[in-house]
Design brief:
Layout: E1 2-6, E2 15-19, E3 29-39, H1 41-46, E4 64-72, E5 84-87, E6 97-101, E7 106-107, H2 114-118, H3 121-134, E8 142-146, H4 151-162, E9 166-171, H5 174-182, E10 187-190, H6 198-212, E11 217-222, H7 229-234, E12 236-244, H8 256-262, E13 265-268, H9 271-277, H10 279-294, E14 302-307, H11 311-319, E15 326-330
Parallel strand pairs: 8-9, 8-11, 9-10, 11-12, 12-13, 14-15
Antiparallel strand pairs: 1-2, 3-4, 3-6, 3-15, 4-5, 5-7
Helix pairs in contact: 3-4, 3-10, 9-10
Length: 333
């Protein structure tokens, strides 16, 4: 089978496509014939050894896949060959076949195609865990989403609205803000690109405050980091919750005196580790997300699709931060 492999640490150009042995299912495992792979920011980090997990090389990136069960290992119950399923292995997914634990599978609902299924779990799972479990977002609260047109940001916009919040979408271009507004955001603003000095950060804090209202944001969903973090923190309301999701603009240093003055909580969001620590809560969240999908309240938006042999281009496109919604790699043309 074909596999996209990371043999040395580096950017997308370091990846190679090679023929490797087909996997066989161990006890408790199934083999999935992969149809589509969702591309996420951790895929770009993990191949450069910048992610929280560092797999032994060679390995394939690709954290979430959708496909058909092709083989079932010893002891597996409730899963049959031919079932349409989603899996989130964390890495190893940019392949034509993958072996995964059978108890980790998520059935694909009727009417959801493989591309959409591969674009569903990581973004909505991360954002729902962040908003529901970490921020405990309440109806009528104000949610400010940074990076509102990316995968997790777009999911946060949709979920914020589904949870009854007033959503303010912030992104780097007019097209991205318009995209977030189409997803249901109540208001939006364009923030500057590149480094900002203290004067520019102060000005941006004022723009965030103007967009979120007199009292500021109850919850900030920060999937960007960098120089945008402090202005967002300054624009928060009393007892606000600041969600730390990702750092494509760099890891920020927050002035902790602001958290004291506003009684703000800075809350980390490590969804991948949370799944392993509390699988029951994860399963409940997934069931709720599927219900929201069936009710038409959330729906993955796929902006670009690439064939497996061009997975390098898919990860490059993600790194360029131009995608609206999700990027997906497919194994068949």
């Amino acid at each position: 089978m074909r596999a996209v492999l990371s043999k040395v640490a580096g950017g997308p150009e370091s990846l190679v496509v090679e023929e490797v042995m087909d996997p066989t299912p161990a006890k408790g495992q199934v083999v999935i014939e992969v149809k589509a792979i969702g591309i996420n920011y951790p895929d770009a980090l993990i191949i450069e050894d910048k992610y929280q997990f560092k797999p032994e090389r060679p390995f394939s990136p690709g954290a979430e896949v959708a496909g058909i069960v092709d083989a079932v290992g010893e002891g597996v119950k409730g899963v049959r060959r031919g079932d349409r399923v989603i899996a989130v292995p964390g890495w190893g997914g940019l392949v034509e076949r993958i072996a995964v634990p059978a108890d980790s599978l998520i059935p694909i609902p009727d009417g959801m195609d493989f591309d959409m299924a591969a674009a569903f779990v990581m973004t909505y799972g991360t954002s729902y865990y962040a908003l529901k479990d970490r921020a405990k977002l309440q109806p009528d609260e104000t949610l400010l989403v940074l990076g509102a047109a990316g995968g997790v940001g777009a999911a946060a916009v949709e979920l914020g609205k589904a949870m009854g919040a007033r959503v303010v979408a912030a992104a780097s271009t007019n097209d991205k803000v318009e995209f977030a507004l189409e997803l249901g955001a109540d208001n939006g603003l364009i923030y500057p690109t590149g480094p900002m000095d203290k004067a520019a950060q102060k000005e941006l804090a004022g723009e965030f405050k103007l967009a979120t209202g007199r009292d500021g944001a109850d919850v900030v969903y920060d999937a960007v980091g960098g120089d945008y973090a402090e202005p967002a923190l300054r624009a928060m309301d009393w007892n606000g919750r600041y969600l730390v999701v990702g750092f494509p603009a760099g890891i920020p240093s927050l002035p902790l005196n602001l958290t004291l003055l506003k009684s703000v909580s800075v809350v980390g969001v490590f969804w991948g580790a949370a799944i392993a620590r509390d699988p029951a809560s994860h399963a409940a969240n997934m069931a709720e997300l599927m219900d929201l999908y069936k009710a038409g309240k959330i729906k993955p938006r796929i902006s670009q699709t690439f064939p497996l042999e061009k997975a390098v281009d898919a990860i490059k496109a993600l790194g360029a931060r131009q995608a609206l919604g999700k990027i997906v790699v497919v194994t068949e043309d």
